[in-house]
Amino acid sequence: MAVSSMTGFGRWETRISGLSLTVEIRSVNHRYFETSLRLPGALASFEEEIRGILQSSLDRGRVSVTIEMSGGDERERYVPDPERVKAYVSLARDLVKKHGLPGGLDVATLLQLPDVLVRRTAEVEGAQLWPHVEKGVRKALREMMQMRRREGRTLAADLRKRLAGIRKGLTRVEKMAARRAPAAARELRRRLEKLLGDVPLNEDRVAQEAAALADRLDCTEEIVRARSHVDQFLRFLSEGGAVGRKLNFLLQELHREVNTVGSKANDAAISREVVLLKEEVERLREQVQNLE
Q: Which CATH number belongs to the domain containing residue 230 in this structure?
C-alpha cells in the first residue's frame, strides 16, 4: 500500500432526462477528517450517506463536495395548492352571493393570489436521483484518490531523497564527534600546563577530567537514536497507508536528537552540520503535513 497526499480533485458529470448533474470533490491537508457539503435542496437528505462514502476511503483531510443540478431547475415545477384554491374559490363565491358582485374568479387572477402555487416537493425527485448521484460521488472519489496517490508517490520519493541526505549528515557528525573528545582532552592539558606553569600535572586527575569531558561531549546515543528514527520513517513509508501522524511524530523526535547533538558537541563545525540537519528535518516536516 502506497502513501497518499491529502491534496486531490475528482469530478463526474452526466445528464438524466434533461437534467445536468455535476459532482466535484476536493481535498486539502488537515490534521483530522473534516467534510463540507454543498448540495441542492433535492439531495439535502442524503448528506449522511455522502459522508459515509467519504469516510470509508479517507482518514484525514478537509474534503469539500459540491453537487450541482441544472437544466431541470429551469422549468419551474409549481402546482396549485388544492386547499388554498378551494378556499379562494369559496371566498369568491360567497362575496358574489353576499354582495351581488358581477363576474367570478377567473384562473389568471386565481394564479396570482398569494400562496396558490407551491413548488413541488423534492423528496421524490431526490430519491430518483440518488442512485445516479451515489455512483457519481464514488467515481469522483476514485478519481480524487488516484490523484492523491500519484502525489503521494512524488512526496515519498522526495522524502527518501532527503532522508538519505540526513543519513550522510549524521555520519559526518559522528566522524567529527569521534575526533572531538581527543581534541578536547589535548586542549584541556594545554590549558592546565599554561595555567600551572612549572608545577607538574596530576596525571590521574587529568585523566579523570578528560574522561568526564569525553562523556559530556559523547553524542553516540543521540546519533544511534536519530538513525533509528530515520529507519523507522522509511519503514512506515514502505508500509504505506495513513502514516502522516506517525511520520510527524518521528520527525519531532529526530529534531530533538539532532538538537541535543548540537548542544553537547560544543564545536563550531558540528554546530554548522547540525543547523543543516535541522533545516532538512523542517523541510521533511513541511512535506509530511501533506501526507494522509
A: 1.20.140
Q: Which residue has the cell 491529502?
A: 6
Residues 166 and 275 in one domain: yes
Share of the chain above pLDDT 90, in %: 50
Neighbour count for residue 48 (Cβ, 10 Å) = 9
State the Cα–Cα distance between residues 132 and 22, nearest whole angstrom: 11
Residues 6+ apart with CB under 8 A from 262: 270, 271, 274, 275, 278
In a domain, 212, yes or no: yes
| Model pLDDT for residues 99-117, shown as the tens digit of each residue | 777 766 777 787 778 887 7
Question: pLDDT by residue (tens digit) across 50-100?
Answer: 999 999 999 999 999 999 988 754 444 677 888 888 888 888 888 777 777
Q: Are residues 99 and 190 in the same domain?
A: no
Residues 191 and 276 in one domain: yes
The count of domains in the chain is: 3
Rounded to whole angstroms, the Cα distance separating 27 from 35 reads 9
Q: Which of 149, 166, 193 is the last residue of a domain?
A: 149
Residues 83 and 167 in one domain: no
